[in-house]
Amino acid sequence: MTEVEDPHPKRGELLIDITKASVNPIDYYTITSLKVSPLPHIPGTEFTGTVSQLGEEVKGFSEGDRVAIYTRFFDGRCDMCIKGREMLCRNGGRIGVDTDGGFAEKIAVNSLQAFKFDGPEEIAASLPVAALTAYHALKEAEVKLGTIVVVLGASGNTGMFATQLARKMGATVIAVSRKSWPKELGANEVVDYSEAEKVVREVTDGKMADVVINSLGAGFWDSGMNLLGVDSKLVTFGTLTGHEVKLDLSKLYSKHVKLIGTNRGSLREFSELVEICRDCKVRVWKEFELEEGADAVRSVLSRERDGRVLINVS
Ligand SMILES: [Zn+2]
Q: From ligand 1's centre to the CA of 172, what distance in Å?
């Protein structure tokens, strides 16, 4: 850990004392392969904390407020922002990749990105990436009451939220995982990969899934495609198992399948999550101290990982 000067909140910003951060694969790639700014760089795309200072003209917050933070910055003025797609802002970016992030004691953020949140810290530290990515994917797939949703990788960072948020949205959820604990997240069925096709067929009376969430990438592409029914949607937003796939176009069009790529979520969706995800469950695998940040980041790609990796900051 390196000592750096404390940030100062500029006009419209809040200074946050970070209390807890979560580790995602993107933090690993931030350190190893992504183009980042500034250098030297503080990673950390997912974190929560307490307001410790208000910049000029900030309204609606007080010192000591606990906040959940939308960890993408955006200009609020471009065509994407105007239509509520802040994550695609033409002049935006990712806190922790394109700016210094939250594996630190303090950070200054635009107050527009902060939402008061008094739920558990491990939830606040899971909303910006894990929960938001999952929620946005489900919204893009128009999941509603009665939708049959299959979540591949249901015990992963986004998978655990896709499972429970789809249930909250009224879906029937078939969680595909090598673990059994996604049952505790409310999944209607939890099945291993080898059983997935059979169980989805049984549960749906042969109709197969309306929506498949593939956060894992190429390694699970074919199994995901095989689970889709007619007029269905496959949503993908991760490439941990590879990013190049073969696609049978005749299956795609004959079943009228929509392929949807998603990337995090909007500010509005984040504000919705702050309400609907207060009682979400977070499976924690390991907690590290800030001084052990490098070990924490390395551990996120461990094959033994079974739940989230968190960093305690204070
Ligand atoms: Zn914009």
A: 35
DSSP-assigned letter for residue 77: -
Task: Determine the distance separating the centroid of ligand 1 and the alpha carbon of 261, expressed in angstroms.
Answer: 19
What protein residues have CB closer than 5 angstroms to ion ligand 1? 74-75, 78, 81, 89
Q: Is 118 left (phi over 0), alpha (psi -120 to 50) or beta?
A: alpha
285 Cβ neighbours under 8 A, 6+ residues apart? 305, 306, 307, 308, 309
The residue behind tokens 């800030």 is 290
Pairing of strands 172-176, 148-152: parallel
Find the 289 Cα to ligand 1 centroid distance in Å: 35
Higher pLDDT, 33 or 268: 268
Residues 6+ apart with CB under 8 A from 31: 43, 297
Could you tell me which CATH class the domain 130-261 is placed in? alpha beta
CATH class of 13-126+282-312: alpha beta
| 287 alpha carbon – ligand 1 mean position (Å) | 35
Boundaries of every domain in the chain: 13-126+282-312, 130-261
CA-CA distance, 138 to 150, in Å (whole number)?
11
| pLDDT one-digit tens code per residue, 220-277 | 999 999 999 999 999 999 999 999 999 999 999 999 999 999 999 999 999 999 999 9
